[in-house]
Design goal:
It contains 15 helices and 13 strands. With 450 residues, the protein is of the alpha+beta class. The protein has an eleven-stranded antiparallel β-sheet. It is globular.
């Protein structure tokens, strides 16, 4: 939103059914109307009749008769789904020009390409008839990308040369990434607007260090030790290091749902639209449930059946023998790869859909609630269709695939009180935000997602 990116009226008395009545309309009933009711009819009601009136329906006016309280259900808020109007044909023109100019300029144009792409995405994302907009400065983004290239090249060159001190380079990289991520998200939100009001992000960088530090150590430290030669031959590392790497990745799998939850909480709870601050009400349990369902689904519907199939294949190949065993083994290997990849795509679709629904259904901003209703089955069908499109077109239909997926994800989000969006006020806090983090995060391939 990718992080989604991970990446896009003045209140009046509504006349439509289901719109909420404003406070001014309720206050327009004059107080004199209560005093104008004659006292005699009220006095003529017998004690028994008066007792039969429910207490909550008999509000007493000072110095006047008893009036009935308003009855009937409260009007419902007007819900509004986010819309995406971009098309593959339009985006293809932007995509092909961006690609060619980026190649010709040896990557320099990539910053301008990003701004064009983001503006197209934002300006085709509409809510309640109004479009979002993106105001990023390509020159500032280019500076951030150059910084990222320097960091990546330095990491690749320094780690093999440091030997036993390779961990120092890893720690330096870990120290830089959370700060860059924070700056990137500040830049992206500050340059995003809706109805003329800017978004902004006030998440502290130290929180990013808390939830990103351990995963980055578990991912980068083993590879740094192997590349430096401390763990032995990179192709055949020492046994103790191989065990340590395995334990590190198991630990990473255990803590990853909580890391993902912490990132989304940090991302949404510190976002502002004008002066309205976001809230994040989803729980870590929503993330663990989603990842557990995906894992056990892959285990019982993928790994175990495929393992049984491979065992039967081994028996069959030993029985057949001869020249036919090779082609059969190749055919079964292709089937195995296809089945496993399809199951992995299904598990990924479940994680993506359920997480997006939990995140947006648990997000509030200025009291306005959202809802997510993405269906994992529909997402899987779009993903499979996109793969077929891209493969058979040799990549030329990538823009069409991107638009199909973008439209589905964005239109799976709904605002539960669209009229309340008109009450938000502007805020110029943090008007100048540097783009070093934005460009660097792009090069390092972080995605905010939705």
């Amino acid at each position: 939103m990718e992080e989604t990116d991970a990446s896009e009226s003045t209140p009046s008395t509504p006349t439509e059914p289901g719109a909420s009545v404003s406070g001014e309309a309720a206050a327009s009933v004059p107080g004199e109307a209560a005093a104008s009711v004659p006292a005699e009819p009220a006095a003529s009601v017998s004690g028994e009749a008066a007792a039969s009136i429910p207490s909550e329906a008999t509000a007493s006016s000072p110095g006047g008769p008893t009036l009935p309280a308003p009855s009937g259900p409260a009007p419902e808020a007007r819900r509004c789904r986010v819309q995406f109007t971009g098309t593959g044909g339009e985006y293809f023109g932007i995509w092909i020009v961006n690609l060619l100019l980026t190649i010709v300029t040896l990557g320099i144009y990539s910053a301008w390409a990003k701004v064009r792409k983001m503006q197209y995405f934002y300006r085709n994302t509409r809510l309640d008839g109004s479009a979002f907009d993106y105001h990023g400065n390509p020159v500032a983004i280019l500076k951030g990308r150059l910084l990222a290239v320097v960091l990546v090249v330095a990491y690749k060159l320094v780690v093999p040369a440091l030997g036993a001190f390779a961990l120092i380079a890893v720690l330096v990289l870990i120290a830089a990434v959370p700060w860059l991520l924070t700056q990137s998200y500040r830049f992206r939100l500050r340059n995003s607007s809706y109805r003329g009001l800017r978004f902004r992000f006030a998440g502290p960088a130290w929180q990013a260090y808390l939830f990103l530090g351990l995963p980055m150590i578990l991912i980068l430290a083993p590879s740094a030790l192997i590349e430096s030669g401390v763990a032995g031959d990179p192709q055949h590392p020492k046994r103790i290091f191989a065990i340590a790497i395995g334990v590190a990745y198991v630990l990473l799998a255990v803590v990853w749902p909580y890391v993902h939850y912490s990132f989304k909480r940090w991302q949404h709870a510190h976002a502002f639209y004008g002066t309205a601050r976001g809230e994040f009400l989803a729980s870590a349990g929503d993330f663990y449930t989603t990842y557990a369902a995906a894992f056990f689904g892959m285990l019982f519907f993928g790994m175990i059946p495929v393992g049984i199939l491979m065992a039967l294949l081994g028996v069959g190949l030993r029985t057949v023998g001869g020249h036919s065993a090779g082609p059969m083994a190749l055919a079964f290997a292709l089937v195995f790869g296809l089945v496993f990849y399809s199951i992995a795509l299904a598990a990924g679709s479940v994680v993506t859909a359920w997480i997006q629904n939990a995140v947006w259904s648990g997000t509030r901003i200025g009291g306005v609630a959202f809802a997510g209703d993405m269906r994992a089955g529909h997402l899987l069908s779009i993903t499979l269709g996109n793969i077929v499109m891209v493969v058979f077109s040799l990549g030329l239909l990538i823009p069409f695939a991107v638009m199909r997926l973008m439209k589905f994800k964005i239109e799976s989000i709904e605002v539960l009180d669209a009229d309340a969006l008109a009450r938000f006020a502007g805020d110029e806090t943090g008007a100048n935000v540097g783009a070093l983090g934005e460009g660097a995060v792009d090069v390092m391939d972080f995605d905010f997602g939705l």
